[in-house]
Design brief:
homodimer, about 280 residues, Cytidine Deaminase, domain 2, six-stranded mixed beta sheet, five-stranded mixed beta sheet, 8 helices, about 25% helix
Chain lengths: ~280, ~280
């Protein structure tokens, strides 16, 4: 059945942290852990697309999400194989038609280097193509936001051990569905996007009734990606930029910032929040 | 005198913050400020190079630093004019020879999207070309690090008003020389690099006896840029990655992380730190 066709994927997850020794401010040695940072060059139908620097926790999801969010591949069913090899730092992606690399040429020449941590590229003009979210009546109780923040706080994270990474969470009103950490914000959100793509959640209504949490700042490309994933509520531990807010308004996205410890600020879309529950 | 030749520069600094209204977790409105995030497309000798998203505090320095750190221009004296116009979101750079845009073609096809917040691109293989720092006997007292952290804490920053930005500081053992904030870490460090270039501090020994402070994480490209600027001590409020540490070792850079409130960790190069003073 065509609908069920999924690409063949490697499973090249690698250890996210390595031990190290540092000196404290008194010159005393102490043990620490450092997050890994690996180069991964994506080849699409044998054409070099980009090199991402990643923690490597879910490289296949990262590559899928990158290809999807940069609109280099429209349909996951076009992908035959995705093979990550850390020995050569390569993610080799092949499509059934075998011509995806060539079609990317024009797009590759129009990259925007955005303000995000992480990959921070956007091909073409994503904003012009942005479809505003459909309001399906989804509402979120204040207590649901608090509960999600508490679940996030309790996660066993690379951040707790090492620092210097960002985390993203996809959740519904009950629980966390996916949690990914990476060196940069954009890698983490792309990995979630790749996981949603694998599960068949793409296109219109894909992220319906979901919440997206990130530790990172809400710059324009983070907000664009959330709207493109069809997720109505974006929550950050940090704040947003003026342009991030503009895009949230344009896209009908509920934007919550400064969210931690039973506090948050609603920058846009407060009609989806029930402050009484 | 050739040595004194400087490019003609516009002065297109723009207001970094805009006022806004948010709701708190109880649904109560409160005033806030948001950092601006503006697109700036760099044209080099009429050829489109990249679009950066920036706070716009010092766009000319940002563009200069970007061209320098990506090794698109080797000598600032080659640049005739750099004109930023926010009306059209363009930074137009022209060189005396007028052929810099063409020479960038090959480099543009080999971009690495790095893990940094901010622009996060590197043209070509920066690591291979990295020249280790020359040890000129520069030593830093622990009290100097503490004093710098205190000066940074007292700065009047966009971060204090808005959050969601990163800051960088260039200092000597006495005082802060430059302070730049931007949406992403790399924009801030590139802006400092541009300011140093304008002052004639480039090439070997450029950042000699200086300290560089950043609020951002020390991923590989941040460490590479610091070594390339010739600055022997890099201090971050955050931590480093495994690769960031590897590059610091390779480059002979003193790497200090988790620096705040009279505490810090020395990840590499502790021989430059005098823990007794």
């Amino acid at each position: 059945m065509l609908m069920e066709r999924r690409p063949f994927l490697s499973h090249a997850r690698c250890e996210p942290a390595v031990p190290g020794v540092v000196l404290d401010q008194n010159g005393q040695p102490m043990a620490t852990q450092l997050p890994g940072e690996r180069a991964l060059t994506i080849y699409l139908d044998k054409r070099e697309i980009v090199t991402l620097m990643t923690l490597g926790q879910n490289p296949e999801a990262l590559v899928l999400g990158y290809l999807r969010n940069q609109r280099l591949i429209d349909d996951i069913r076009d992908i035959a194989e995705l093979h990550v090899s850390w020995e050569v730092s390569v993610a080799a992606v092949s499509t059934y038609r075998g011509d995806a690399g060539e079609r990317c040429e024009d797009l590759l020449l129009r990259r925007t280097v955005t303000s995000g941590c992480g990959q921070g590229t956007q091909f073409g003009n994503a904003l012009e193509r942005l479809q505003p979210l459909h309001d399906d009546g989804f509402r979120v109780a204040r207590s649901t936001v608090f509960a999600l923040l508490e679940q996030v706080r309790q996660l066993d994270t690379v951040y707790k051990r090492c620092g210097a990474v960002h985390g993203c969470v996809l959740a519904d009103s009950e629980r966390i569905l996916h949690h990914v950490e990476d060196i940069g914000r954009n890698n983490a959100v792309d990995s979630i996007s790749g996981l949603m793509w694998l599960e068949g959640r793409s296109g219109n209504g894909a992220g319906s009734r979901k919440l997206f949490y990130t530790t990172g700042r809400l710059t324009s490309e983070m907000v664009i990606k959330t709207v493109e994933m069809g997720i109505p509520v974006l929550i950050s531990r940090s704040g947003t930029t003026e342009r991030g807010l503009d895009i949230a308004r344009h896209g009908g996205l509920t934007l919550i910032g400064r969210a931690w410890n039973e506090r948050f600020l609603v920058f846009n879309g407060s009609e989806r929040i029930d402050f009484t529950k």
